[in-house]
Amino acid sequence: DMDSLPDRAGRYLAGDFAVEYRRYIDAIVESNKQAQVSNSTQVLGAAVESLSPTEASALVYTNSVATSPRTKGIPSLRYLSYRLNMELRNRQWLITKMTAITSLDLTPRL
Predict the structure, then answer these.
(1) pTM of the shown model
(2) Diameter of the chain by CA atoms?
(3) Can you tell me the distance from the alpha carbon of 47 to that of 44, in angstroms, rounded to the nearest whole number?
(4) Which contiguous run of DSSP H or E holds residue 9?
């Protein structure tokens, strides 16, 4: 349910990144609804890159699959990795920046 995604994710985000994320999702919700896009993302691995008492960075590797009737059920397959910058606020680690490191698109081209 993409309509509620910004609210669900918002509790893990902070600062400018939280605002940017909400703006990005709000911009694509309607087109994804119209195209009846179904998306699933699985975290394949994660690792702490750096850690201090108030800041951390982590690498996250994901596998995303999206389908739509517009693509005749042919899935879009993407392997992505991200660097997450985080800050400790009120005993909770919040993401303040998310940078794509790698992107591999294995979507079949017919």
Answers:
(1) 0.86
(2) 50
(3) 11
(4) helix 5-10
